[in-house]
Structure formats: structure tokens, C-alpha cells
Amino acid sequence: MNILIVEDDVKIRKALLSGLTDLGHECHGESNGERAVESILHQTPDLILLDLMLPGKPGLEVLSAIRSEGVKAPVIILTAMNAVQDRVEGLKLGADDYLVKPFAFDELVARIEAVSRRTSLQPAPVLSIGNFTLDLTTHRAEIDGRLIDLSPTEFSVLELLLRHEGRVVTRNMLCKHVWGFEWGGSTNAIEVQINRLRRKIDSDNGESYIKTIRGRGYALRTSADDKEA
Known about the structure:
The chain is an alpha/beta fold.
């Protein structure tokens, strides 16, 4: 699943990102409520872990804002606030579950699985962001309506880049997503796939949708206006 972790405590956020990524989920984090709303509305995740005490916009306001915009992704509230009224208010606003800090990681994983079963959670069959449209069922890829012929590996690379649009995707993330193993730094397989993908998706004017972030990985810009030479 693509999971957004909205948590301003750096240690907790990093621990959740690491633990859930190790379980095979694609995760990213936000520490500010206003930025979290923007991120959710721009690219709806499959599931949201939401702290209540956030800078910028409190968690309950984040929850209210995304539900009013029609976002149906399951939300599990994570908070140190244990008052019954807080739990009731969160559930009334559309939260699917509530976990009080401190909590065991195994319990969080069990609750994520339970929420997934209750909501019949499945990734969206079509991923449409910016100029890109990917049909995850048929593996059909289009840019501005132009059909792109991609190999299964190229499609998988593009899917991961698109799900993290505008953010850095590390080589290790690509290796785990595409091939299922940790990147050891001893192979150029990633660079080969990125170069093949660039040749297929880039326009004729020499600009590339995929930007190399030296020493870190790659980032995808999804429209011509966003691209950098």
C-alpha cells in the first residue's frame, strides 16, 4: 500500500517509515497539517496514519478537510490524547480507527490489516497524475494521451516514480519495488532502466521528465511546466 504518515515527532515518523517500508509498503511522511492536506488532495494515498497534535493544522481539521473533499482513504489516528471525547470526535469526522501512544508496532500493523479488510482496500486501478496516466490492471501507459510501450520493469519503475511525484525515489526504493531486494551499489541495472524509460517518455526538445538527484536517486516531474533541464 501507499501509506502517508502525518506525524510531527521526528523519531516516531522515521520509525514508522522504516518499519512499514520494510514490510513492503510505499511510505512517505509529513510533519505539518497544512502540507498533509495538500499532499493528500494532490495524490491520495491508500491509507493515512494521522497524528492529532500537528503544527499548521490540527489533525482533526486535516481529517475534516480531506473528508469534505471526498477523500475516502482509510485514516488511523495516532495520538497521545486518550480522552473518550477526542476518540469520539475523530470517529465522527470519518476516522476508521484510533490508536493511543505509546503503542506497539505489531499492534499498528494488525490494525492496518484490519482496516484494509474492512474497507476492501485495493490500490486505485488507474493512476492519473499530471500528464501521466497508468492503468495498473492492463499496464497501459499514456502521456498526454500518447500511448507508451513499456516493458513490465519499465512500467514498475514509472509507477513508483509517479506515486512519489516531485519527491526523491532512492535507488534502494527502486530495487525493493522492482526486484524485491536491497540495493548494494554494485549494479547499474537501475541506471539502465531509467535511461530506457527516459528514451520512451521524454519529448523531442531534450528535456527529461526524470531528474537525477546526485547521490540520492531520482525525481519525476509530471508536466512540461514542472520539468527542469
